[in-house]
């Protein structure tokens, strides 16, 4: 994800530099962000980050996505477009074909991930979002 953030920052900077060069923009505010994007890798910081999800008060789906992301390590696109038919709750696996590489994958799901997915499934069945 940090690579995606850096790539997005770079693209925004290119667009703004073009805007300055063509007289459509006065400055490039992305310069102030250089060095600001850092990956959280220290175990203590990772623990703090994960615990901060517990206090999230936004939508259920967003909270569940925050909880699932570190459990499944999927590309954002693969994660966002997951289908219920790919989830086998009995074997605790997700089976799908990766869109980027077109290769089949079998991803074992941690008990915690299955629990979160069950929560989402129950709420979607009842029309909650």
What is the gist of this entry?
The chain is built from five helices and three strands, in the order H-H-H-H-E-E-E-H.
Characterization of this structure:
- This protein is mostly helical.
- The chain has a domain at 59-129: hpI Integrase, Chain A (Orthogonal Bundle), CATH 1.10.443.
- Helices cover 49% and strands 9% of the residues.
- The protein has helices spanning 2-21, 43-52, 60-72, 76-80, 111-125, and strands at 87-88, 93-97, 104-108.
- It has a three-stranded antiparallel beta sheet with strand order 1-2-3, with no helix packed on it.
- The two termini are 25 Å apart.
Counted beta strands: 3
Largest sheet: 3 strands, antiparallel
CATH level-3 fold name of the domain at 59-129: hpI Integrase, Chain A
State the shape.
elongated
Order of helical and strand elements: HHHHEEEH
Please name the defining characteristics of this protein:
9% strand; hpI Integrase, Chain A; elongated; mainly alpha; three-stranded antiparallel sheet; 129 residues; 5 helices; 3 strands; 49% helix
Topology of helices and strands:
Layout: H1 2-21, H2 43-52, H3 60-72, H4 76-80, E1 87-88, E2 93-97, E3 104-108, H5 111-125
Antiparallel strand pairs: 1-2, 2-3
């Amino acid at each position: 994800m940090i690579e995606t953030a850096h790539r997005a920052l770079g693209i925004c900077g290119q667009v703004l530099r073009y805007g300055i060069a063509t007289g459509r923009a006065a400055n490039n505010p992305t310069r102030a962000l250089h060095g600001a994007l850092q990956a959280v890798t220290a175990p203590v910081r990772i623990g703090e980050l994960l615990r901060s999800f517990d206090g999230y008060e936004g939508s259920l789906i967003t909270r569940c996505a925050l909880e699932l992301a570190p459990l499944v390590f999927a590309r954002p696109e693969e994660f966002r477009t997951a289908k219920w038919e790919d989830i086998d709750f009995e074997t605790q696996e997700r089976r799908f074909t990766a869109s980027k590489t077109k290769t089949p994958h079998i991803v074992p799901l941690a008990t915690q991930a299955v629990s979160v997915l069950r929560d989402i499934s129950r709420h979607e069945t009842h029309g909650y979002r």
